Amino acid sequence: MRDPTPSMRSYSPSESVDAVVIGTGAGGAPLMARLASGGLSVVALEAGRHWSPADDFSTDEFDQNKLFWMDERLSGGGDPIAFGKNNSGIGVGGSTLHYTAYTPRAQPDDFALRRDFGVGADWPIGYDDLAPYYDALERFLGVSGPEHYPWGPSRDPYPLQPLPLNAPAQLMKRGCAALGIRTSPAANAALSGSYYQDGVGWRSACTNRGFCQAGCSTGAKASMDVTFIPLAIGAGAEVRSECFATGFERDAGGAITAVIYVNQGVEQRQRCRHVFLCAGAVESPRLLLINDLANASGEVGRNFMAHTGIQLWGRFAEEVRPFKGIPGALISEDTHRPRDADFAGGYLLQSIGVMPLTYAGQVARGRGLWGEPLRAHMRDYNHAAGINILGDCLPHAQNKLVLSDELDARGLPKPLIDFTNGDNEVAMTAHAERVMRDIWSAAGAEEVWAFPRNAHTIGTCRMGTDPDDAVVDVDCRAFDVPNLSVCDNSVFPSALAANPALTIMAVSLRTADRFLEG
Amino acid sequence: MAASETYAPGTVRMLIESDLVTPATRAVLKARLAVPPVVEPRFFSRDMFGTIGAVCDRLIPQPERPRPVDLPGALDTRLADGASDGWRYATMPPDEEMHRMGMTGIDQAAAAIYDRTFIELPTLEQDVVLRGVQAGTASGSIWAEMDGARYFEELLSLVTEIYYAHPLASEEIGTVAMADAHGWQAIGLNERETHEPVAAARMLGAE
């Protein structure tokens, strides 16, 4: 394995650095780069390895399970959430190593569900606060998308032309056209042409491998390890891989003086003046609960959310070969606020390609097929195509993360996450299934079947203005600890009807800017 | 119609040796092809290993293969190594215990209906037993304690993913997703890369 960081600066553990960042995904990596560029000394701790994708990433889903967080989590409630490969990454780059690169912006009204519908929670910041960051991120990452995006506020064209439509996208376009539903090539943070950015260098165009969710071996997908991480390291940050944070040292005033972590089985500590906890909506609250930190409100772990994400699969007479091309090539946001909705909020529609093993696993779980019927179904894999939704999810009090009584191999309590879709999510899912069945019928699908699921991990350390019902303030600073910030999908007060990665990065850059402004 | 996508035997195995497959991918797939069948289980007892073998034969029957993909062996190896998929249903016991209980429970269900062990039953009766577990209606003290439908889902999805990760299964469903060292250009409907193999049935003009 090649050393991915040949000329990285290193700090002494006894030296008190300006900032320790825990986690290197969409929450940690952008702010790390911004803080280091601002002249601060920054050390990032990452539980997983620092991969060299060209050498280390195979085109094999089983082998690439190494990108997923495999420490066991317990899933309870009426609709238990699948973790691991469904939503949880590990390694330098975090979950962006396995994200699909789907980067729609949230729309202005997503931030104000309570204002508009009287349910859920409003964000203390809005679209206008994040729009400059969306602009900058789309340029820096190299987002491919249409010149004129049909939904949301007016905006500049995407910096790169759209990625080509694969077969599932062509089918969705056909079905939607027949029904009068508008579609557009989607925004994807994967390059449709070679692209240069200062501090990163050249990245080459996407080769349509279609294995985004099992890791990009070419660097065309804008995961953090090929974008913000090299930018941060170039600006003087140190990224320590295989370092699992377990606790904190604090002074008499409650301020954190050092982060305790385990590397190769040995406990270490890094002295620091500020901590940015960016470990995601499961590990961030888990670390806070284990250390009884930042939880005077009792809100840590509460309001766990997961996007409604029902998938609809169909078999087509045409050859699809759904493993090719960017999986989510086509989008429609005509369902952002459906006129006939019997629910608050809305959802977006997305065409989906699928890798063979992922499809096989979903056929087994979703349809319960076995024996010759399973093998016969899978012999038609080349004719399968899907659509899915990404829909809002309201915060519910009973959906929460707590520490279980079971200990993991590290001797730490496993998290227990209870999740049940509420009436709003159930109604939205039913609406979406009807719409998608109509689209697939119009596109000519046979043997259509639905796979209900929830996607992403959101909430558990909510951002707010009132210390009694929020964990962090509008700048992501913990109310209860003078030098702790939390910045990842855990601070989202509501789920938003958009895939979270771009908004997590936008909040991350804003958090760094607010911190640097002091 | 369904079988028309199957490649000629050896198609994927030959492709793995070509420069259409990256070195990292080739190494993984060749290692998988070279795994010897498990004869002595490390996790299951011999009796349970016999039961899981018979169950796998019903979940993914491979009557056409003189040397079937070794599903019970891969399952035993995985459990012996303590591999996790990152989560489990909070109402289910840990994976190791769950599978031992599952095999015991399948024998209990077989005994309740036919007064025999699962492995002694003809395949039609074995399928009746498995359908009862899947439906959550199987009899036996294990199934009073553990949700049969959930167990069946866990077992089936794991065995299915092990099977379809094997190059022989890739040949069966006619996919060369792994042969992407040069990427894909022909990605639209009814498009096929010039170097992408043609299904066996189509070569013979069976369509």
Summarize the structure.
Chain A is an alpha/beta fold and 518 residues long. Chain A is 24% helix and 20% strand. Chain A has a single domain, classed as FAD/NAD(P)-binding domain, CATH 3.50.50.60.
List keywords for this structure.
heterodimer, A: 518 residues, alpha/beta, FAD/NAD(P)-binding domain, five-stranded parallel β-sheet, 21 strands, B: 207 residues, mainly alpha, 10 helices
Description:
The complex is a heterodimer of chains A (518) and B (207). The longest helix of chain A is centred in the last third of the chain and has 21 residues, at 423-443. The mean pLDDT of chain A is 97. Chain A has 518 residues and is α/β, with parallel strands linked by helices. Helices cover 24% and strands 20% of the residues of chain A. Chain A has helices spanning 28-37, 53-56, 113-117, 127-141, 167-179, 228-234, 280-290, 356-367, 372-378, 423-443, 501-517; strands spanning 19-22, 42-45, 73-76, 184-185, 195-197, 201-203, 238-240, 243-250, 256-263, 266-271, 275-277, 305-308, 311-315, 330-332, 347-352, 384-391, 400-407, 413-418, 446-451, 454-458, 484-486. Chain A has one domain: FAD/NAD(P)-binding domain. In chain A, strand 5 (195-197) and strand 6 form a beta hairpin. With 207 residues, chain B is mainly alpha-helical. Chain B has one domain (2-203). Chain B has 10 helices and 1 strand, in the order H-H-H-H-E-H-H-H-H-H-H. Chain B is elongated, with a radius of gyration of 20 Å. The mean pLDDT of chain B is 94. The chains are: A alpha/beta (518), B mainly alpha (207). Chains A and B meet through strand 3, helix 5, helix 8 and helix 9 of A and helix 2, strand 1, helix 6, helix 8 and helix 9 of B. Strand 3 (73-76) of chain A pairs parallel with strand 1 of chain B, so a sheet runs across the interface.
